[in-house]
Each structure stands twice: as C-alpha cells, then as structure tokens.
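Methods: holo model generation. Sequences were used as deposited, without trimming of termini or removal of tags, and paired with ligand SMILES retrieved from the corresponding compound records. Each pair was processed once, and we did not select among multiple samples. The sequence and zinc ion SMILES for this entry were:
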Amino acid sequence: MSENIYALRSWMYAHKDSTGKVTDEFLNGAEIFMYQAGQTPLTKETGKMFCPCRKCKNTKFAASDTVWKHIVNRGFTPHYYIWFNHGEGDNRNEASGSNHVENVRNRDEPHLPSESVIQENHMLDHDRMHDMVTDAFRETTSVIEEVENVEGPNLDAKRFYEMLAAANEPIYEGCREGLSKLSLAARMMNIKTDHNLPEVCMDAWAELFKEYLPEDNLCAESYYEIQKLVHSLGLPSEMIDVCIDNCMIYWGKDAELLECKFCKKPRYKPQGRGRNRVPYQRMWYLPIKDRLKRLYQSEKTAASMRWHAEHDQKEGEINHPSDAKAWKHLNNVYPDFASNPRNVYLGLCTDGFSPFGMSGRQYSLWPVFLTPYNLPPEMCMEKELLFMSILIPGPKHPKRSLDVFLQPLIEELKELWSTGVQTYDCSTRTNFTMRAVLLWTISDFPAYGMLSGWTTHGRLSCPYCMGSTDAFQLKHGRKTSWFDCHRRFLPINHPYRRNKKHFRSKRIVRDTAPPYLSGEEIEKDIDYYGGQSTVVKGGNWHNPPNMPNGYGTQHNWHKKSIFWELPYWKDLLLRHNLDVMHIEKNFFDNIMNTLLNVPGKTKDNKNSRLDLPALCSRIELHIMNDGRIPVPIFRLSAQAKAALFKWVASDVKFSDGYVSNLSRCVDHQGQKFSGMKSHDCHVFMQRLLPFALAELVPKEVHEALAGNK
Ligand SMILES: [Zn+2]
Ligand SMILES: [Zn+2]
Ligand SMILES: [Zn+2]
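and the model returned the structure below.
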C-alpha cells in the first residue's frame, strides 16, 4: 500500500466539480471529518469545534452544524491534511474512536479492535504485556498443559510461546525493564493509527530502530512483522459487503454473488480489478464467540461470570436482571441451560446515531451492542464489557431492512445455544462448553418496531393492546391519541377505574386488559397474518403494497422478525424492552416545554384546548366565548421562569462529571432549556424535579410532577 495521507485526503481539495457542484467524494470525506471531529472530548462536551473552512481557518469556534455548512459551502482551508485541531496529531489519543469510520470505509487500513488494550494505553509496562498475552492465549496454555507430554506444541501453542517471548524478552541486553519487542510494536502501531502514517513510513521507522539500537536487538524489522505481532492479540472482525440499497448482505451462501439478488444492482464499483474491487457498501461484524471466551480467559472477569447464580437476592428487590421474573422463567423452561452458571446471558441494544447532529445531511450509523448479564451490576455496565457486535453503515437508515444485517449475529447465537463453544475458565482451570442465550433487546420505541416486527406508529402502535386498542383520533390536533387507554390494565378494584373526573370525563373503566399473549401465541399470530422474513424477501420488501392483509387495522406485523429463528425466542417472557432514558427525555422535554409555554413546543396549544371539552371535565381550560385562552395553573409566570433559570444556571451544583454543565443548557433569550442530553434530562427528572418547582407552581401541580406525596 503506497498511499499516504495526502493521497488519502485528496478529497479535501476536490471540493467542486467543473459545473460547480459539490462532489460526492468531498461530501463523503467531509462526513468522516465531521464524525471524527465530533469524537473529540472538546466537541462532545460543547457541541462546538474549530471551523476549518476556507474563511474561518480554524480560528472560529462554532457549532457543529455551522461548521458543516461552512465546509460544504466554502471548502477546507488549504493544506489542512492532518486535522490538528480536530483530534489528530497529538498523543493524547483523542481521536482513537475515529479510526472506526475510517476503517469501515477503507479495507486496506489495518484494524485494531476497539477493545484492544493496546490502543488505550501508551504506558504499557512489562507485567501488563505479559498479562495481555496470557489472557489472550489462556485457552492455548491449558491445552498445552494437557498435551505437552504427548505431542510437540501445536501451531497455536507455538504462536503462544512466540508471543510470550516477545512480551518477556528485553529488546536488547541491558535495556530498561519492560522494553520488549511487543511493547515497541504496540507503541508503533498506536502512533501509526493516531497519525494515520503510511506503511512505507512504518517500514522506514522499523528499519531505523533496528539499525540504531544495540546489535542483536529483537526489534521488529518491518511493518508487516509489527502488524502480525500486534494482531495476534486482537479479536477477529469481519467486513461484509452490503447491497447499496440494503436489500441483502454478501454473506454465507451469497458471499460470492456479484449483484444483488433482489434489486440486481452491482456489488462493486466499476473501478478496481481483482482483489482491489471496491464494494458500494460494507458493514462491520465483530463475532461474539471469542469475545465471550475472553471473559473466561481473563482473571478480572472469569470468576465474576458466575455472580448471577451465586449472589444472594434481597427479598422483594431487583438489583440485577437475574433477580427478575423473565430470567427465572428462562431458567425454569431450560433447566439444562441453567444448570451451568457459566453459560452466558446476553442483552442486545441498538440505536441509530447521526454523527452530524440533527441538522445537515441525513446520516445514521447503527451500532448493535451486546451486554453479558452474568456479571455483577457494577461490571455489567462497564464500557469494555459492553461490546459492539455490528456496525451498520450510513448514510441510509436501516429501517425495515435491519434483519438483513443481524444475520451473522443470529447465526452465531443459534450455534452458541445449540452446540456451544469449548472455553477455558481460568478461575477454575477447567475447560467447559459455553452456551449463550439472548434474553431480550433494549431500544427506543421506533427501534422497538424494527426489532420486533410490530410497527410502532399508527393507531395500533401499542404492542400490548395490539388489535384491541382504544386509541382515537384527535379532531383538532389531528394526531392519534392514547390518552386514558390503559386504565384497563389496573387491578379490577383500583379506585382510578371508577374515577370519572380525572381521566376521560364521565368514563368508568370496567374492561379487563387484553389477554397476555405467550411467545408461542404471538408467533402463531404472525404466521397467521402472513408476516414474512426480511432475509427471504429482501431489505426493501416490507413496504405498503406488500403488507399482509389486515395490516394497520387488525394488526401491525410488518414482518416476522429474525429473532424468531432463535429456538428459545418463543419461550421468553420479555422479548423487547424500552430504554427508559429515551422515554425520560421525551417526558422531560414535553413537561418543560409545556410549563415554560415554549411556542411550537408546548403541548398546551390551541388545538389541544379545542379537543379538550370533548374529552375532559376541565371547564376552567375551555376557550372563552370572546376567544381568550385561560392561563392554566401549571404554566410558569415570568418571575417563576426567571427564578428557575437563575437557580439552574448558577445555584445547582453536582459533583464533577456527574452531569454536563446544566447552566449551559439554559437559553435565557429563548426562555427555554436547550441542548439537554438524555442523561441530563434523567438527572433533572430524578434529582431536581422532586423539589425544583415546589415554590413556583401550586402545590397540587408540584406534587403531580415531583411524583411524591
Ligand atoms: Zn467557517
Ligand atoms: Zn439490492
Ligand atoms: Zn396499550
């Protein structure tokens, strides 16, 4: 590979074509730039970055969307090949996350798995190197111990010994302790990725080291050798070509196809031959088997993997998923699986994120994460124990083609359930067959639809009420409303059921909740309505003309989700979960915008007042005969608003890092909160709302919002 950074980033100065149109090459590159710049702590914290456009020349600090507009309109300031002001070119490793996208797009770029300890720490001392090697090869060593006397070391074992030597042996006689061939290789690899150095440059450096260090030093002689050494520690990952329209992936029995079997579009771009062919689109798959095995190969996690079965549950409390009903139910249905506490319980979560913020071009990336729940609560949530398994590329939203991308993962999960995989447990020094189960998915409400196959918009969105929903249309608001549709889930004697005043006026609810459907019944329903598999029909098949009969009126099944291929899926009690943080943010935004009466955002608008008389007995809120709209008791007065903003902006203090600076979110001019992240909203709802409004609104409003009585 002879390309250097100038060639790699030549797009930066291919701004417009001869007709003056901004080139696709430029836009694609600029998106990568925006993504990478967005990863720097500075931008994450402030939402702003230095603008590298032709005019600002990295002197102006501006909001990301502004920078995007500037770049697209003006192009980059000359000679800005290395993005010094956007995470590159310093050793604090700010841009390490960025190599992701670069790598997704550039097959030739060497890849270090993100979990790799190597990238994260420059200060690799001798012991850590040794640990790393023994962790990575734990299984091999156990095998070596067993077979050593019978036969010579096998290939894996040989590799292991080489690695161990590389980690342990001083790079030259008499050098400072901890300087080994492996530590040097890891450092060099790190520098390469941080600065995006070309391979020829790495070769030259390696030669230089070799030559200048004392004779007989063990320094790697070429970039190839460095790469081999470092990669043997890493975990496997795959790039899979994807149809440009997301119809299918070139994987499994379709791996060799040259055009999409659904839309017939070609797999590769016209330029490039043989091994250098470039596909239109790729996804990233990080197989989970080895990652799970590593949890047992590392001293840090191995013993804790049995925690779920060994901890004492406090009576009546749920501190961990294993304390809850769904988990216990699975164990009851599959006692064989439950009998080995080393089997792994997984959760899957996914969400799209647009690296370029809300405005600008629509672009979404969809990572899919897995969490092993075996570990105690504090470890379950650790970043390095939450692993990304799939990265679905942008710019297109995967929407109803999601299952296409999940195929390799589902295949692996099936195998992990039925046959399992030989694993060495370093806490007990034994081999065992590790199996794994996917307990559930976690997502926001739109992604719930993508995962479950039950469309989550329209009248039938509620996946529990399903066809027997009470949803209705608001005459003036012109939206579907689920107001007071769920009182029937209350116990039959609950006083709310008889309350005629506080819900829909004059309505007593005697109905019982719609029947709870077991997984088996749901699967039968899907088959009855004719829900189809995305993989069979293609990623773009699930659109209105192809929807099964009764879709949108009797049921909302747009597909039979790929998860039903898992043999145990029908036996799970809780297949799909909603992520509370997303919902909390929606609630927070709506509550605040309504209390502050933010124009266009408040839920208390003219249409809701027009709809209100038909639904509620709140005569005091009806629009008056002369057209005046009465002020509701929950709206904050000008003084109350000022007091709230002042309090949040200057008086509220949290310990560092607990929450982003809330004062930043106060928009005095617009008289609203802006730029609140989900976690900020969570903190506000949980920690501030219980008392924030105590003196600003009437007691009963405060109590309703505070959630305490
Ligand atoms: Zn600018
Ligand atoms: Zn296609
Ligand atoms: Zn419902």
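Residues 462, 464-465, 469, 485-486 surround zinc ion (ligand 3) (CB under 6 Å).
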